[in-house]
Amino acid sequence: MLATKFAYREVLLAFVLLALVSTSLHANMRKNFKALETSYERGRINEIASQISTLKPSSNEEKAFVLFLRAMVENKSSQVSSNYLQQAISSYPNTKYGQLCMLQQAKLFVLERRAEEAKTMLDKINSSQIPERYYWLAVCEEMADRPSSVISNAENYQRLQSRGEYLEESYYLIVNAYMGQGKFQSAISTLSKLAAIKGYPTDAQYFHYLLGLAYQRAGNWQEALSNYQQGMEITRYSQVAYMIEDQIFELKAKHGSKVDLSFLYPYQKLEILEEETPEETEQQVVEIETPPADTPLKLTGKPGRGLYLQTGRFGVEANARSIAHRIRSLKLPSGYYEDRSRKDVPWVTFSGPFKTAAEQEQALNILKENQIDCFKIRH
Q1: The predicted structure's pLDDT at residue 1
Q2: Helix (H/G/I), strand (E/B), else coil: 375
Q3: Burial classification of residue 149, based on how many CB atoms lie within 10 Å of its CB (0-12 exposed, 13-18 middle, 19 or more buried)
């Protein structure tokens, strides 16, 4: 009896030791998975790629995590990545990483402009640990042109992620949605809220472009111009700068000489000619030669040597063509060309060439009388 009791105790002790060993190994494995998760969060993709094959997942969460990592490592191949994501979604839909795979799959759908499929995938996510899904739902709703849903989802994201990765972008989604609804004051108010958050906006030029556009649509062209000017002072060589430029010339076309565009010039180093004194030009009236009707409006390159007036730069060719036509309607030589020396290739409009400085001066006065800003240059 005593021997049996001791034997029983030995067997029981063996089971306890085995359980402790198993627990220790399991904890060790979880620690390794956690370390790899930290590596992923810190962007150490190469480190992750070398360790994935050594992992031996046991739980559904770990298995979903391995598939998620494989998808992230293979993200250069969207098809291979998608296969791993789909496997995790099908097999482990209720795990955290199974649902993160749903999020990544939805992003792939967004990139492919498959908004409804992305929305369907995002709607399957119910984990409170993935508030980012609301941001991507807002993106999907914007693609589907449903502004009210854009606002609702973006605001949910902001409520759950007050300093989230997509915080600024979520504000811009809301602003564009309000603009689409014609609620320009709401758009202005939303941008003011963003500006009140410490450290924001991070994309100041786009912020001032949107705020200027909201003021412009609301009928406050002075505030619009002020924001456009602040945006242009950040850099003049971005796509946003050309978007701002087009809006500035739209203001100029509508409000004429009230809109001061002096801050736009010069765009590049040019030989700006000195203004002649009134005594030199007083009473001097010259006849400027009207260009032949068949003279091309669009040049294939920069105009030849001579005296000119630069009358503007545009990010959209149609705007350049329009101002050149208008100048010709005033019986002055004009045209436009593509300036390939600039990063985003703006369109430059000009008047000229003029035979003499007197002709150049008279043309300048004619253009200014017709609310067309310009300045003298020599090529």
Answers
A1: 39
A2: strand
A3: middle
Last residue of a domain, one of 90, 113, 136: 113
How far is the C-alpha of 168 from the C-alpha of 257, rounded, in Å?
Answer: 36
- Boundary residue ending a domain (83, 113, 143): 113
pLDDT 10s digits, 189-230: 999 999 999 999 999 999 999 999 999 999 999 999 999 999
DSSP H or E run through 338: strand 334-338
The C-alpha atoms of residue 207 and residue 302 are separated, in whole angstroms, by: 34
Q: What 8-state DSSP symbol labels residue 272?
A: P
Which residue type, as a one-letter code, is found at position 234? I
pLDDT band at 285 (very low <50, low <70, confident <90, very high): low
The number of distinct structural domains making up the chain is: 2
Judge contact between 133 and 103, C-beta under 8 A. Answer: yes
The answer on pLDDT for 8 being more than 60 is no
The range of the structural domain enclosing residue 30 comes to 25-113
Query: Which of 325, 300, 329 is closest to 312 using CA atoms?
Result: 325
CA–CA distance, 267 with 346 (Å, rounded to integer): 11
Residue written as token pair 């002096």: 262
- What gap in Å lies between CA 310 and CA 295, rounded to an integer? 18
Q: Is the distance from CB of 81 to CB of 68 less than 8 angstroms?
A: no
Predicted local confidence at residue 47, as pLDDT: 76
- pTM listed for this prediction: 0.63
Distances (CA, A) of 299 to 60, 245, 314, 350, 358: 66, 22, 15, 11, 25
pLDDT tens-digit readout, 243-253:
898 899 899 88
47 falls within a domain: yes
Beta-sheet pairing, 375-378 with 334-338: unpaired
Is the C-alpha dihedral spanning 346, 233, 366, 305 positive or negative? negative
Predicted pLDDT of residue 343: 58
